[in-house]
Write a structure and sequence with these properties.
alpha/beta, 7-stranded mixed sheet, globular
């Protein structure tokens, strides 16, 4: 039952704002705005990833999967799974006796992930859930590894998502957080900033016919916390023995945290 202390909580939440790229929006509006972006780009999502990163995203994901610690028979959750790149790595690691579950808040992207997993021959031990990363629809301590790759910056309340991922991770399990970050070399930072602002939206216009969605993606990367700030957020969520691997000079960072 609601109490006097929380009776006004919905109204207070409605009044909160967050960022959508460089825009400030109501918190409750962000999920819909992000959803529209991914509805627009889903059909050529993988092609654009290859073009934007010159194929490097495949190496970043392979490296992240190599740090999962997964063994045959383990259970792994891929949050904001997108087209299923990480899930395919995990499926090979856990084998037919393991379990891989893909989640996404966007039905179009989850359908793309399911189609790609099925086309790759992974069906029997694969599950799918349309669920919000901030309120994952799973029991406590269910997964040996939880991964979110290039998805946290699209979440409205990242701290809530990290807490939810911590909840569903088993004791002794780990979190893999792969995300764009801050280049650690000044010249690289300048070159990457110029490329992101000028080239990526233009690619989006040419390949997808949608420069605006890729402008948002660039802005969301620019607004994402630094490696150090992300480290602090993971610690606050309860993860321990935190490690950071800077990839491609810090353009991308892999954060690893353990639950004990």
């Amino acid at each position: 039952m609601p109490t006097a202390a929380n009776a006004n909580a919905p109204a207070e939440r409605n009044a909160r704002t967050t960022h959508f790229g460089c825009r400030t929006v109501d918190e409750n509006a962000k999920a819909g705005l992000v959803g529209a972006v991914f509805d627009s780009v889903a059909a050529r999502y993988d092609l654009m990833n290859d073009l934007m990163s010159f194929g490097a995203h495949r190496w970043w994901k392979r490296f992240a999967a190599s740090q999962s610690g997964l063994r045959r028979g383990d259970a792994v959750l891929d949050v904001a799974a997108g087209s299923g790149d990480m899930a395919r790595h995990f499926a090979r690691q856990v084998g037919a006796g393991g379990r891989v579950v893909l989640t996404d808040i966007n039905a179009t992207m989850l359908a793309a992930g399911k189609r790609n997993m099925t086309d790759a021959g992974w069906v029997g031990n694969i599950g799918y859930a349309l669920t919000d990363a901030e309120q994952l629809c799973f029991a406590d301590e269910l997964f040996d590894c939880v991964c979110i790759a290039f998805g946290l910056r699209n979440v409205t309340r990242p701290a809530d998502a990290l807490a939810s991922m911590h909840r569903v991770t088993r004791a002794g399990g780990r979190l893999l957080l792969l995300e764009f970050s801050k280049p650690i070399l000044p010249l690289l930072a300048k070159a990457y900033d110029f490329y992101s602002r000028k080239a990526i939206p233009k690619l989006g216009e040419l390949v997808v016919g949608d420069a605006r969605s890729y402008q948002y993606l660039v802005e969301s990367i620019q607004r994402h916390p630094s490696q150090q700030a992300m480290h602090a957020m993971l610690s606050q969520a309860g993860f321990e023995d935190l490690k950071i691997h800077n990839l491609s000079g810090g353009i991308v960072a892999l954060h690893i945290g353990f639950k004990y």
